[in-house]
Design brief:
Elements (H helix, E strand, L loop, with lengths): L2 E4 L5 E3 H5 L3 H7 L3 E2 L6 E5 L9 E4 L32 E5 L35 E5 H10 L1 H4 L4 E4 L2 E4 H4 E3 L11 E13 L5 E5 L6 E4 L1 H10 L12 E10 L5 E5 L5 E4 L3
The chain binds zinc ion (ZN).
């Protein structure tokens, strides 16, 4: 889309005007953009190396928004996993090998409680439900498109224990102090990406919460390769899911560090 509103200063910008603001201001403002019509969180992507003009987008717009039709289709995930479905009611186990390697089997009748606290943890019951193995990319797609899935009581089995889907997956803009120190599947839309110390890669989500996923130097090359990214701007407007623990840095910035490619997936926009 050609225009977006910035909630930092209340102004409506064309992509061209926004681009003129200069790098430091763009850096802050691009995380606080919304669609002028439906108010959905929006992103800004700079002109690409391949010459695609700077643009705004939202993923998704609120149903009925006229700006939705103007936007391109989503780029598919790598790997031929389009056929994977999630059946509500079945227990999900994660295929951390994204289809290529071994499948992790938690012991359903003897789960490990990761933090020894009640509430979210689901102890093993005598009854076993059917099990399906799903990749991170499939889980992310379901989180993006299905409110029913996001809110479901479906059980997800991990080496760290068993969780309900609605407790385990935490959208960036819903993460709060209670999640600090908690192992979860954190997910949401990225506003931008930039290199940090020692070439670690900061994948930043927008909004007031402004959480980041920090990809360790060791996996940065693999991340670019696996998702076919050669320009950091391609991360703007993409969705990400990372399995990890929410931490808060000295200056109060929330982040999830990731040093294992098997624990992260990205759905790029196009
Ligand atoms: Zn919209």
């Amino acid at each position: 889309m050609d225009v977006a509103r910035c909630i930092a200063d209340g102004n409506t910008y064309t992509a061209h005007n926004f681009e003129q603001l200069g790098d430091s201001r763009i850096e802050g403002f691009r995380r606080l953009l919304v669609c002028v019509q439906c108010g959905a969180p929006a992103f800004f992507r700079k002109e690409s190396r391949s010459g695609q003009a700077a643009c705004f987008g939202a993923r998704p717009h609120i149903p009925g928004c006229e700006f939705a039709a103007a936007e391109g289709r989503r780029r598919g995930n790598p790997g031929n996993d389009q056929e994977e479905q999630i059946n509500l009611g079945e227990r999900i186990e994660i295929d951390f090998g994204y289809g290529a390697q071994e499948i992790v089997h938690p012991t359903p009748d003897n789960p490990i409680d990761p933090n020894g606290r009640g509430g979210r943890f689901v102890p093993g019951s005598g009854r076993r439900s059917p099990v399906m193995h799903r990749r991170l990319s499939t889980l992310l797609r379901n989180l993006m498109v299905s409110e029913q899935f996001r809110n479901s009581d479906q059980i997800i089995g991990l080496p760290e224990g068993q969780f309900r889907v609605r407790d385990f997956f935490v959208r960036f803009n819903e993460a709060n102090r209670d999640h600090v120190g908690e192992y979860r599947g954190y997910w949401g839309m990225l506003s931008d990406a930039r290199y940090g110390q020692e070439n670690s890669l900061w994948l930043n989500s927008g909004g007031r919460e402004n959480l980041s996923v920090v990809a360790d130097t060791a996996i940065v090359d693999g991340l670019h390769e696996r998702f076919d990214v050669d320009d950091l701007e391609e991360f703007a407007g993409s969705y990400i899911l990372v399995f990890g623990t929410l931490r808060v840095s000295g200056n109060g910035k929330g982040y999830v560090a990731c040093n294992d490619l098997r624990h992260i997936t990205v759905s790029l926009s196009d």
